[in-house]
Amino acid sequence: MNSPNIVFLLLDAARADHFSCYGYHRETTPYIDTLAKDGSFYNNAYSNSIWSLPAYASLFTGKYPSSHGAVDWSKSIDPNSNILVNNINKYGYETSAVTTHLLTCGHGIADAFDQATWIKNPSRLPYPDDPVIESIERDLYSGKSLIDSIPSALKTLYKDRSFETLPNAFSYTLREVKYRTGYWEDDGASNIIEQSKHIIDEASDPFFLFANFVETHDPYRPPKKYIDKFLPESVSISEANQVAQNNMVDLSLGIDSISSREKKILIALYDSEIRYIDDKIKELSNYLKKQGKLDNTVFVVCSDHGDLFDEWGLWGHQGAIHRNLCRVPLIVSAPWEQKDEYHHPVELRQLAEYLPKIASGSQMSIPEKEGAVVEYHGWDCQISNDQWDKFDEDEKKKWGTYSSSYLTRNWQLLIDANGNKSLYSRDEKIDEINNDHTSKINKFENIILESVGNPRDNHDTYRAEANKSEKIENMSDEVKQHLKDLGYA
Predict the structure, then answer these.
(1) What sign has the CA pseudo-torsion 332, 333, 336, 339?
(2) What is the DSSP secondary structure assignment for residue 340, as one 8-state letter?
(3) Integer Cα distance of 402 and 220 in angstroms
(4) pLDDT < 50: residue spans in the chain
C-alpha cells in the first residue's frame, strides 16, 4: 500500500470517560465510536501533563515536560525537537496544521509544519486589552438585566471612548446578546473543518493534517442546536448561560460555588460540546470519502488532557495530577485490518515516534507500557498574575509546587517536591499502607526518578529560572489574549 494520508484530530480538554466508546452513559461520540470499533482503541492512554502547552510539547517531541522545558506560557520548544512533524516531512509528506489554539502562539510547535493556519475564535474582540470593555463587562455582569445594563455601559463608553473601544463595544454587545439568547456559536470548529477541506483538495498525497478543537475547553457554550442535547428540560437559556460563566479557578479555590443542579448543567454543556465535535469529525471523514481519499487515510483522535468536575475539590484542568485529567481518549483508525482494544497504558509522547513509523509504511500499533509518567510544574505556570493573586501565601506554597505521578491500569503514585507521597487504587486514596503498598510505592517512585528525575531538583531548577512576574512580562500579546480566551487571565 502507498504511504497513507494521516489526519490527526485533537479535542482540547476532552476526558476519556465522557466518550461513549469509553463506557459513558450518554451517547456523546457516535461517530468516534465507529472509529474505535473498527480501529485500534487505547483504553488507558495518558497525556504527560494536565494542561495544553506541556502536553502538546511532549506529544510532538516525545520528551517529558522536564526535558522539553515548555512548562509555562512564556516557554517554547526548539522546532528541531519536533520529531513528529520533522520525521514525517522526511517521508515526503505535505504537513499542515489548522488551529485556533496554541500552535500559533510562538511556542515553536508550529514551526516544523509546511504550513500552519490560524483560525480566529469568532468570539474574540477586534482589539485586545481594552480597559473600557473590561469596565463594561463588570457592568453587564453586576446582576442587572441586559436592557438595564446598557445605559451604564454606554456611559462608561462615552467617558472613556477610544478608536478601539467603539468596534470592541459593538462586538462585545452582540456577543452578549447571543450568549443570553442562546444563539451560541462554535469557537472556530466550522472554520477549521472548511480550511481542512481546502487543504485536502490542494495537497498532494501523502499529506499529514493536524487540527485541534477548543470547543470542549471551558467555557462550555455549544452551538444553538446542541445546547439542549443533554440539558434537563427545565433549564432555561439564561440559567445555562449563567452556569457557563463560572470560573474554574474561583470554583477550585472556593471563591465561588455551584449547586448540584448547576454542576449537572455544566457537565451537560460539556457533553454537548463533545457531541458537536463528533459531528464535525464525521463531516471531515465524509468529505475524505467523497474525495476518494478515506480508504488511504489513517485517522487519529485524541485529547491533550481532561477536565475535572469537583474531583478532589478541583474544577477544570489545574492544581493536581488526577487520573481523569491525564487519561485521554486515543483511537487510531487505519485502512488496514487492525481491530483491537489495548488495555495497558500508553503515553501520548509515544505518538512522536509512532506516527512517523506509520508514515514510513509500518502497520504497527503503539507499544503498550506498564505505566505512564505525568508531570506538573505548578498551578501558577498556566494562569495569569491576576488569577494567581487570588491565592493566599499558604495556597501559593501548596499549589506552586512541582509534582509527578506514575499511573498503571489500577494504581497511581503521586509525589511532589515537598516529599509528599500518595498512593491511589484507581481514585481511592490508600490511607493504611501495608507491605504490598510500600513495595508498589518504592517501585513506582523509582520509575519516576529514572524517567524524569527528583521532584525537589525539578522544582528548584525551574523556580530558579525566573519568578512569575518575569514570565508574564515575557509573554507575547497573542499568548496573553489566548489566556483570556481560555479563562486563565
Answers:
(1) positive
(2) E
(3) 29
(4) 469
- Cβ–Cβ < 8 Å for 330, 346: yes
User: Residue 385 and residue 320: Cα distance in Å, rounded?
Assistant: 19
Inter-CA distances, 28 with 143, 251, 290, 301, 409, Å = 34, 25, 25, 14, 24
Q: How many residues does this entry show for the chain?
A: 489
Query: Which residues, other chains included, contact 195 with Cβ-Cβ below 8 Å and sequence gap of 6+?
Result: 98, 117, 119
User: Domains in the chain and their CATH numbers?
Assistant: 5-123+185-485 (3.40.720.10), 124-184 (no CATH)
Q: Which amino acid is at 397?
A: K
The residue whose grid cell reads 498556566 is: 382
pLDDT of the residue at 475: 59
Question: Are 184 and 71 within 8 A, CB to CB?
Answer: no
In the block, cell 461520540 appears at 29
| Angstrom distance (rounded) from CA 6 to CA 13 | 22
List, in sequence order, every beta strand (DSSP E) within 107-151. Answer: 115-118
pLDDT of residue 120: 84
Please tell me the predicted confidence (pLDDT) of residue 469: 46
Task: Extract the C-alpha cell encoding 62.
Answer: 516525545
- Helices 146-159/165-181 angle, 10° precision: 170
- Element holding 84 (H helix, E strand): helix 83-90
How would you label 28-53 residue by residue, b for 16+ Cβ within 10 Å and e otherwise? bbebbbebbeebbbbbbbbbbbbbbb
Asked if residue 416 lies in contact with residue 401, where contact means CB atoms within 8 angstroms, the answer is yes
Residue 416 CB coordination number (10 Å):
21
For the packed helices 52-61 and 351-359, what is the interaxial angle rounded to 10 degrees?
40
pLDDT of res. 148: 65
Q: Hey, CA dihedral for 197, 189, 97, 2, is it positive or negative? A: negative
Are residues 102 and 189 in contact, defined by beta-carbon separation less than 8 angstroms?
A: no
329 SS3 class: strand
Q: What is the pLDDT of residue 37?
A: 95
The span from the CA of 96 to the CA of 80, in Å, is 17
Cell matching residue 300: 487519529
